[in-house]
Amino acid sequence: MKNHATDVHTLAAAYALGALDPREREDFDAHLQACEACRQEAAEFAATAARLAAAASQPPPASAKAQVMAALDGVRQLPPLVPAPTPAPSPAFRDVLRRRAVPLALAASMAAALFGGVAAWQAQNGQDLQQQARQARQQLDTVSAVLAAPDARTVHGKAANGALTTVVASDRQNKAVFTAANLPAPGAGKTYQLWLDHDGTMRPAGLIDHDGTVVLAGNPADAGAVGLTLEPAGGSPRPTTDPLLLMALPA
User: Is residue 182 part of a domain?
Assistant: First the structure.
């Protein structure tokens, strides 16, 4: 990744979509610590990609793993494909590819969600899928309304486990949304739980177990902060671990 400031800011979408190589990602991680605009942009791109995937995702049937494992012994391993060496592209050509990769990656995400939804429609009960689609649309409509609200206020933070977080709140909508990027997997039997701090009383505000955006449950109007803890799967009525994050809501 080039070190020119004007180039660094263009990589937020590629970063959110995992399109940077390890060195570029490491450099951009360092850049995020000092650039609020890029933190917000990267979080919004990550949330958009997560919402597109969540709208079409379906859990595999319980029998899938057993069928795959049973078929492995009958599958012949093919030799590795070794591509012929090609000359490295020039720096200018790489910059052109990167600029084009961002819209193409976003388009690919939307196409994957679309065709994944069609496949799921064929494989799953139509009524169940329609209900899931309605819920996804409602969630997306709520998030969009908060982000577009004239009184929307934003605050950024970093959790103790390294996750980059953003909260956008709107008094007019009486809603707040929470976005996480670089959120480590919670581990088997665990989930991340969100909390609203009401004068020292932590009230459950929803669950999140991977990068993405969720609408906080409860009333954020009289809450002072948002908390994040690691809890048993399904959540807890009150925090059982020290908070990974306690971030003041935007004033």
Answer: yes
